[in-house]
């Protein structure tokens, strides 16, 4: 939920996305339901509680693809919808698949931070909420670009050359290749080509 502090700052509580080591890698499995389908780029993990929805009837988690772009979470978190019933859902985490991403943050009363570029390969990379813990942010921006070979080192070099560059755009069109995510922690018994799943 977004809220205003006494000084008028818009604050969002969310997993502490400054803790880069809290991002965990999960395997895929093609047996996931369609509402856990993910694409290249970033996605939101959320629960649906709509009793008329295939996911909501089980109070199940869903994956909401966001794709590539610059995402200001203070604006984006209130505009996330269940892929099955299209009702608004509240994200509890974010994840990435086959892309490069950078997190920029500022906590109340603290200095702004711009993290390093990270690379998510052909698996599901997502914050572990228990390990990350929750924090409040007055700035929480995630930039996501298509996967680049050697991207982490290359993009961190560019960031050093342009340290004051600030993200100003949002939400470019997402890549259309889709994958799935599921609660099943075991790899699928057969090899998947396009549709995968992981733990939410």
Topology overview:
Blueprint: E1 3-4, E2 10-15, E3 23-26, E4 37-39, E5 41-47, E6 61-67, E7 69-72, H1 73-76, E8 90-97, E9 99-106, E10 113-120, E11 124-127, H2 129-132, E12 134-137, E13 139-146, H3 151-161, E14 178-180
Antiparallel strand pairs: 1-2, 2-12, 3-11, 4-14, 5-6, 5-8, 7-13, 8-11, 9-10, 9-13
Write a compact overview of the structure shown.
By secondary structure, this protein is mainly β. The protein contains three helices and 14 strands.
How would you describe the overall organization of this protein?
36% of the residues are buried. Residues 1-8, 160-177 and 182-195 have low confidence and may be disordered. This protein has helices at residues 73-76, 129-132, 151-161; strands at residues 3-4, 10-15, 23-26, 37-39, 41-47, 61-67, 69-72, 90-97, 99-106, 113-120, 124-127, 134-137, 139-146, 178-180. The protein has a five-stranded antiparallel sheet with strand order 3-11-8-5-6. Strands 7-13-9-10 form a four-stranded antiparallel sheet. It is globular. It has three helices and 14 strands. The protein has one domain (3-180). It is mainly beta. The chain is 10% helix and 38% strand.
């Amino acid at each position: 939920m977004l809220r205003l502090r006494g000084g008028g700052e818009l604050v969002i509580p969310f997993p502490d996305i400054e803790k880069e080591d809290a991002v965990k890698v999960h395997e895929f499995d093609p047996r996931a339901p369609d509402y856990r389908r993910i694409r290249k780029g970033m996605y939101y993990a959320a629960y649906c509680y709509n009793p008329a929805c295939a996911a909501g009837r089980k109070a199940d988690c869903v994956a909401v693809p966001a794709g590539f772009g610059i995402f200001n979470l203070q604006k984006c978190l209130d505009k996330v919808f269940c892929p099955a019933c299209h009702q608004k859902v509240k994200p509890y985490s974010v994840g990435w698949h086959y892309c490069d991403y950078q997190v920029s943050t500022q906590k109340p009363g603290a200095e702004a931070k711009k993290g390093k570029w990270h690379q998510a390969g052909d698996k599901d990379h997502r914050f572990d909420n228990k390990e990350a813990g929750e924090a409040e942010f007055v700035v929480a921006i995630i930039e996501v670009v298509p996967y680049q070979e050697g991207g982490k080192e290359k993009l961190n070099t560019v960031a050093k050359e342009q340290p004051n560059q600030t993200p100003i755009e949002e939400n470019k069109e997402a890549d259309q290749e889709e994958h799935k995510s599921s609660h099943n922690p075991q790899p699928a018994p057969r090899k998947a080509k396009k549709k995968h799943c992981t733990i939410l």
